[in-house]
Amino acid sequence: MGALLLGFAWACASVPAYFGMSADELWEAGVQAYSEENWEDAIQMLEQLVTQNPGHPQAPEAQMYIARAFVASEQYITAASEFETFLQLHRNDDLAPEASLGVCQAYAVLAPHPQRDQTYTQRAEEACAQTWLEFRGVAVSETADSIRVEMVNRLAESDYGEGQFYRNFDMHNSAIMIFENVVSRYPETNWAPRSLLSIYRSYVSLGWVPEAEETSARLLSGYPESEPARQLRTEMSEENEFTREAGVDR
């Protein structure tokens, strides 16, 4: 008898709190749990709603609450997935702009320091660009573009750092290839003129005079007001002064 009672108690304890609730009750209880910041219960009840009643009038909003709850509980990878699920199911819903921005923001939070793997940074940049393109004219578009610019700068900085790593070990050919990639992929960032200056310095180290002169011209014409251009002018002036004093014709 005791074993039967124990088994019954265990069975009751294992039954979810939302067991037997109707779709409307799941909705109300899930939103209540969300408002009380009880993220786990909110997610469980609202997931039950959208799984068993995908055609329920509140199903789109329930899906958004699920994604928001994952954001609030700092589960950003899952949050991004839930926002993407919303967009797959409810692309034309009024909440679609928020969901699209949610993907952008979730991956942006995961974007690491520039010295680490930039997979999530790349995902954030792509997601934010998609939000900007798809919802131009809506408030989320400007926010997404601002985050996109930040992610682009982080990607450029990461590649620039890799180039500097090779240059510091006198692996100039590899460094030049990476710096050129920064210039071509991220020309609007501050890392483009910095990369051109590093390319110039690598060519000087290699003794490749025509290539160095061509790179200096690119930097001075393309980014004349940049700090790297100012540094280049100083370096070229000092080099010319040195050659004059040494009596060497360039």
Total count of strands? 0
What coarse outline follows from CA principal-axis ratios? elongated
Terminal CA distance: 103 Å
Secondary structure category: mainly alpha
* CATH class categorisation of the domain at 170-245: Mainly Alpha
Strand content: under 5%
**How much is the radius of gyration in Å?**
28 Å
Detail the poorly predicted runs. Answer: 3-11
CATH superfamily of the domain at 170-245: Tetratricopeptide repeat domain
CATH topology assignment of the domain at 170-245: Serine Threonine Protein Phosphatase 5, Tetratricopeptide repeat
Residues in helices, as a percent range: over 70%
- Major sheet, described briefly? none
Q: What number is the mean pLDDT?
A: 91
Compose a concise summary of this entry:
The protein is mainly α. The chain has a domain at 170-245: Tetratricopeptide repeat domain (Serine Threonine Protein Phosphatase 5, Tetratricopeptide repeat, Alpha Horseshoe). Helices cover 77% and strands 0% of the residues.
